[in-house]
Amino acid sequence: MRKSHPVRRAVLAGAATVSGIVLLLSLKPASDPGSAQAAGQAPPAAAGQAPQGGVNGAVTGDAAQTQYGAVQVRLTMANGKITQAEAVQAPKGGRSDQITASSVPRLNQAAVAAQSAEIDAVSGATYTSAGYKKSLQSALDKAKASAGSQQGSGGAQTLTGDVAQTQYGPVQVRVTVAGGKITKAEAVQAPKGGRSDQITSSSVPRLNQAAVAAGNADIDAVSGATYTSAGYKKSLQSALDKAPAGGGSSQAAGSGGGQAATRTLTGSVAQTQYGPVQVRVTVAGGKITKAEAVQAPKGGRSDQITSSSVPRLNQAAVAAGNAQIDAVSGATYTSAGYKQSLQSALDQAGG
């Protein structure tokens, strides 16, 4: 038998190695499945998680109160997908500045990638992450309502009201509206701890039942649960205010439901150095026909500033038709809060 030449063996081994590498490369996917997410783009598989139906424009979530300050998220959406997420409020001051600067950009990126509020908390920013996710979810709820997306049968819409602060804790109501009627009401937040547990367990089911029966927020307070009832009614009204035009009956559409092209929209609460500011507007034919502050700083010097500045801000909002209004001299903080809440109300209208 003729011996194989060493050079021949080396050539054959090299050829086999190259063939193996080529085969492996041909089996590798054309792109890394995680590359889109790493680049801050939404992966195609996640598209169904964001509200579909052509939602476009900015949507601002409710402010979520945390142990270190408020967190509020604003989304920019195009064709039902989240294209940008930003925190318009976040904890600040001292150590919070560093935590916010580190965590918020990562949460923003995660929201765009996930196209939902199902995102992981950032390590070392537990409270900020929880507040971010809560506000993000409320923004998505508003986008669904704005799009009139189908949730369940009969064109049902889920609407989450703003958080109403009471002496014993926050109250927040979520309702399902179908065919212009409230078909379900529930309290996603209610006072708890000590005596509050008993009051909540007794009163909330009765308030839920009353909301469904009445079809609006004009319900009686439950005896012995005055504060909880007041907070419930306030949050319920804000949920109904978010019902899209033409999507509900004259009852469920809130105070603007009697006119087909009229909507009443309540903005998120804007926290200022001197107290909260919250704006409610009536929009008809694409124009602001009425503006009012349902909350404004009060007590001491604030009473005088509020009584002087708020009527002028209301008038300016109607005249401008948007939130690009001038601050009132001597009422810098109130003006800033007013404009922020006004913008969040207009975001709900898609304007």
UniProtKB/TrEMBL annotation:
One of its GO terms (molecular function) is FMN binding. One of its GO terms (cellular component) is membrane. Residues 33-58, 240-261 are annotated as: Disordered. Residues 245-259 have a biased composition (Gly residues). Residues 67-143, 167-243, 273-349 form the FMN-binding domain. InterPro entries: FMN-bd (IPR007329), TAT_signal (IPR006311). It comes from the Bacteria. Residues 33-53 have a biased composition (Low complexity). This is Uncharacterized protein with FMN-binding domain. It comes from Streptomyces paradoxus. The lineage of its organism: Bacteria, Bacillati, Actinomycetota, Actinomycetes, Kitasatosporales.
